[in-house]
Each structure stands twice: as structure tokens, then as C-alpha cells.
Structure prediction request, 409 residues.
Amino acid sequence: MQFFGGSDISPSPPAPTASGHNAHMMYMFNRNGVCLFYREWNRPLRTLNPQQDHKLMFGLLFSLKSLTAKMDPTSAEKGNLGVPQLPGQGCSFHSFRTNTYKLSFMESPSGIKIILVTHPRTGDLREALKYIYNLYVEYVAKNPVYAPGTPIKCELFNTNLDQYVRSIS
Amino acid sequence: MGRCIRLVLLALVSACLSSRRSQSRTSFSSDNRSADLISAQLTGTKLDLQSRPMSRVVGPRSGDAIFASVERVNAELFTLTYGAIVRQLLTDLEEVDEVNKQLDQMGYNIGIRLIDEFLAKSNVTRCVDFRETAEVIAKVGFKMFLGVTASVTNWDADGTCCSIVLEDNPLVDFVELPDTCQGLYYCNILSGVIRGALEMVSMKTEVTWLRDMLRGDDIFELQVKLLKQVPEEYPYKDDE
Prediction:
């Protein structure tokens, strides 16, 4: 974790990289916490080993979802924090932004979570995440050699994903 | 041999699950993005991936709209392939009950993958209760994948059990059950598909056939019974 000194002015965000990729990294999880897919295009700083990193990310999202659902001022339910929820039920957050990156999140009712980390000036990526979900369906779910619930190792999916991510503004 | 058939079925059915009642060949529809991707792969051309407008929020699509936009196969090819699979299973396994179980298992394997395609293409949000789920399966799901519309009837008192009625079933064109296979549920793959798909959206169900046209009834009726809803739990045991 890096701490910036007591200054109020946040550092300027890093410029988009010369490699042309607009995203930093992407994760995909299923409902059991298995990291189905991880890809990084531009990640200068790594603080944890991959397993811990995936667990941390999954735990973060799980807690954030739970928290946002419980803090919902429009919902009539009076459940306690930490009570398990059905995926897709209640409200779900879709992105958060810091001064150095933006994290966009999408969860399907079948429990597939897609996380995309990009530079902070990116717009709303919900459509992009839906498109990536479509790519997942076409190249992974329909692939008879792929066993559901295991990490994704499909070349076609990787190529098409790279191609698409390059075009996101 | 059995495993080979499972793979063939999965590949075939998962790649071309939608069927249409006509004599025409497979048609690619160019306003569907995934069809674009596939046809670009096949022809080796570079696809121009202009991103779609980012701020537009799209509501759920109707079964007809999706059915019209998705790529389809010749219905006869689909029917005959399914028939060949059932025939081969009967030869391999010989016991009609075993074949029923195997068909259900194959359907389950298809269902757990099909659910993602369904969710991606139809844009439905989480259904509020089981009634809505059954309606969505009958109106959007069956229409999108088989090209037929089903209806939902016979709700029980607490809304956990219903019947999906199919008047038209593309799987059973040209089929007559011989006397040796009287216990066979020919379309048992459909019950597996529904069970598998619903399990992936955290609903444990039991799906059985009440009426079957191949056994002399006038219509196909599937009973779908919700056993329980399984909410999501934090999968890791400790805070490591």
C-alpha cells in the first residue's frame, strides 16, 4: 500500500500506456470464488502473490456487494449484514474510482463476476462488461473442451478480449 | 463410445441450439455481434470493433427478437441428430431407465452452460419470484432456443410448482416409440437442461414429465418443482 504524504492535491493519473491497451487488468470469478480468468496488460506494482491477490479481490467484491445492498435506502428488506444473498438480488454496485484507477464490476445472475480495472478517466463500462460477458459465452461456455468451474485457457477468448479491450475508450 | 457421443452432442447442440422450421440452410444474421465475431473468425477478416454507445441501457429482449437475430440451423438436422443420439444411447445402454438418466445428465451439462448464453442474449435481470422465472423460461427461453412458445399452467398454492406446456416440440418430429421402448422419456434432455440452468441461478428444482405425446397424450407437459433457493455464501473458510 502506498501512502501519499499530507498533501491535498492528488497526483495526476498516469497517462495511457504506449502499448495501446486502455485497461490495466481483468479478473473473472465464478460464484464459488474460483478465479476463472486473470489478465494484466499494464500493472507496474504487485504487492501480493497471485492466490492472495485473487482472494483479496473476491473478498472485497463480496463484502462491497453485501454492504451496498444493506445500505440501500430504497429497499424494504431488513436483513442483517452478512446474511447470504441470491446473486443479482438487491442493488449491486457497478464501479468505484480512486485517483489512480477505476474498477468496474458486473455480476450475472448465474454468479459470473467480471472485473475490469482501467485508468480513472474511463466512462461507464457497463456495456463493455456485457460485451465481455458475450465473448465469454461465445468462446468459453460454448467450448466443449472447457469444464465449467475451472480456469479459462481458451486462446480465442484471449485474442478477442485483447482486441476488444484495445478499443475501449 | 458414450463419451464421444456426449462430446458430439455438446458441441453440436451448444453451437447451434436454435432451430427454425424451414427448409433453408444455416443463416448468419449480421446484426448480431457474436455472429459477426464468428463469421470474422471463419473468413479471417479483421472485424471493425467500433464500440457501441456506452451510455445506453438496454432492457430485456423478447424471445422473438432474439430468435430472429441469433444464428440458426436447419430444424431437420437438429431433430435427426437428436434422434441418432437417443438411438445410439439405446444401443449402448440397453436399459430404458439408464437412457432416461443419461439423457437427463446430458441435459444438465448443457443447461449449466446454456444459462450464460441465455442471460447474455436476453438481458433479463434477476427474477423476483418463481412465477416470473417460469414465465421467462416458457416465453423467452423456449422461444429463443427451440423456436416454440410454451405456456405455464397449474400453479400450486404456494407458487413453487408449475407445469410448462408445449404444444409443439421440434425434437419429436418424425418420431414413433416402438413397443420395446415404452418406458422411454424421449425428450428427457429438456428436463435436464431446465434443471441445470436453474441450478446455476441458485434454484434447486425437480423436473419431471407429466404428459408426453409419444406415449399417447395430447400435449407435452413438464412439471417444474422448486425445492429450495440456495443463497450465495462466502466460499473461503477462514480469513487467511
